[in-house]
Amino acid sequence: MWLKGFISNHVNMKLLKTCVILLLLTVLFFTRRNMDLLQLNYEENFGIVLKKVTSAPRTVPRTAPHTDNFCTFEPLSLADAKEERMLLDSIAWPETPLLPAPFLFDQTSDPAHSIFTILPGRGGVDRHVGDQLEVMVQIYDFQGNPKKSGGDVLLARLHNRALEAGVAGRVVDHLNGSYSAVFPLLWEGSAHVEVTLVHSSEAVTVLHRLNREHPERVLFKSLFRSGSSSETTSCNVCLRQTNQPQCNYSDLRTGEPWFCYKPKKLSCDDRINHMRDGFNVRLKDKEEKLFQSKVNLKVFIHSSGPANVMVLPPMKGQPEVDQGKGKSGLSGYYYQGVWRSLGGTKVHQFNNSSAISQCLKGKVVHMYGDSTVRQWFEYLDASLPDAKEINQNSPKQTGPYMIWDNAKNILVTYRVHGPPLSFIYVPTSELRYIANEIDGLVGGTNTVVVFSVWAHFSPFPIELYIRRLQSIRRAVIRLLNRAPDTLVVIRTANLRGLTPSESLNYSDWYTLQLDKVLRAVFKGFNVRLVDAWEMTLAHHLPHNIHPGRPIVKNMIDILLSYICTK
């Protein structure tokens, strides 16, 4: 009897163990399956596979392509990955409408039907310096129906052309088709409201999709040469995988990615230049209608009533206008054509060559970045007649450039940043990354580092830009650790003129995302900003990737005021 019980218990134990093993195998199967699904969903949603980049240049054989996943980035540290997630959350745009194919154009945002209304002031009709002006904007579609969702891109400015006064407005999206624009009242006299629809929410849907699905739409190529043999192949930061091997030119120190298809007969080491090769933008049916000049691309919205207000002097007992950012959150404003700061360093005027050279006496100024900071170099070059140009035979767009005033011991340099670069021609020997250049500086009390990096990053995943800024920030921290008295100045992004084709790659909406990220990455660090976004928005001159001379003059005044505080 006991033997029968023993056998029964033994069998039950074996069955129990078998069930437990089967259960564990089942859990393991579904866990692995869910992890695969999770990875697949991640790749489809973000379009980025994090693969380790090691050395450069080298041949990179690729497996069969996956059309949505072809951007290669180095893995981030836990801290950088957390920051990236926070940055992405901070720039998340309101949900925009899905566009069925074909979509109904008449139901998209129409600036001609849309209106803005100046709201009554608090406590009476009169408005005084120091008050705030609020404007309500209602967006309508082409059928005259009010929109019920947000996501449109609006700009707002308050100005007085006769006084050469202007200030940017802060726009608030109420997510229901209505928006508020708020302005501080900073000068006496007339103040005229201007509201612009840059893009409809439907256009934002398209722009978002283009960067997610077609980050390689700006085409690049490189020439490879060895002796009498030469070949040209396509290059990009996001290069689709084919059976053709790739050369990996990712930077060894920063990990910044760049790839070219390997030439059939030549080596990866035979690359001699970098060139832009045009554009390949893939729009769906009728989407081009969302980007029409004078229709729905950077078009003014009209007022339902008066578009201007009269501003009286401050009321008795009212404190003077707060010269800090305060509740406006603005950097400054124009008055009589001069930029006045609303916080931080007082802006001085450097109106002639003597004042500029006196400020820069004994200084070394290193400028890095795109053509918007090269414009600053050109301004100083023209303003320092005693300085001699060196490297006069450098490529016009990219440099490197240098001017030297021996008598006053002034040195100013400029060098373009590393790829992506939408310039026609750059020798590979001149492809340098800002972080590496900063690491090569000694720094010190008489050293000024200026950089601007944004204009060439619009058509690419924002993660690429975040990583570039994190790399530059680490170099800035190292510089300030070894030379704390070094002055670091950052020129922010600015608004630009947009044709329909330009807006598909370099839209102000893209620029706005980059600008927000730039400010967030360097917030709290010992750097100074020149707010090019506000300075181009508040000014009466047309938006341009290279702002007009009056704007640049004010920017240089800010830079020199940082250098010469007294």
What does this protein structure show overall?
Strands 4, 5, 6, 7, 8, 9, 10, 11, 17 and 18 form a ten-stranded mixed sheet that branches. A seven-stranded antiparallel sheet has the order 2-14-15-13-12-16-25, with no helix packed on it. Strands 22-23-24-21-26-27-28 form a seven-stranded mixed sheet, with helices on one face. It folds into three domains: 105-205 and 289-312, Immunoglobulin-like (Sandwich); 218-279, no CATH class; 344-564, Rossmann fold (3-Layer(aba) Sandwich), CATH 3.40.50. The radius of gyration is 28 Å and the shape is globular. The chain has helices spanning 2-46, 78-90, 201-213, 353-360, 371-383, 434-439, 462-482, 500-506, 508-522, 532-537, 549-563, and strands at 48-50, 59-60, 71-73, 109-118, 127-128, 132-141, 153-160, 165-168, 170-173, 178-184, 189-199, 218-226, 229-236, 246-248, 259-261, 273-279, 299-303, 308-312, 332-335, 338-341, 364-369, 388-390, 401-405, 410-416, 426-427, 447-452, 487-491, 528-530. It has 566 residues and is of the alpha+beta class. It is built from eleven helices and 28 strands. Helix 2 packs across helix 7 (462-482), helix 5 packs across helix 11 (549-563) and helix 7 (462-482) runs parallel beside helix 9. A hairpin with a 4-residue loop joins strand 7 and strand 8. The model is unreliable at 1-56 and 58-67 (pLDDT under 50).
CATH architecture of the largest domain: 3-Layer(aba) Sandwich
**Average pLDDT rating:** 87
Distance, first to last CA: 105 Å
Radius of gyration: 28 Å
Main pleated-sheet profile: 10 strands, mixed
Tell me the count of domains.
3
Residue fraction in strands: 25-35%
Q: Structural class from helices and strands?
A: alpha+beta
- The general outline is globular
CATH homologous superfamily (4th level) name of the largest domain: SGNH hydrolase
CATH class of the largest domain: Alpha Beta
Number of helices: 11
- Helix fraction? 25-40%
CATH topology of the largest domain: Rossmann fold
Q: Which stretches of 5+ consecutive residues score pLDDT under 50?
A: 1-56, 58-67
Based on DSSP secondary structure assignment, what is the total number of beta strands? Answer: 28
Q: What does the oligomeric state look like here?
A: single chain
Family: Belongs to the NXPE family.
Protein name: NXPE family member 3-like
Organism: Labrus bergylta
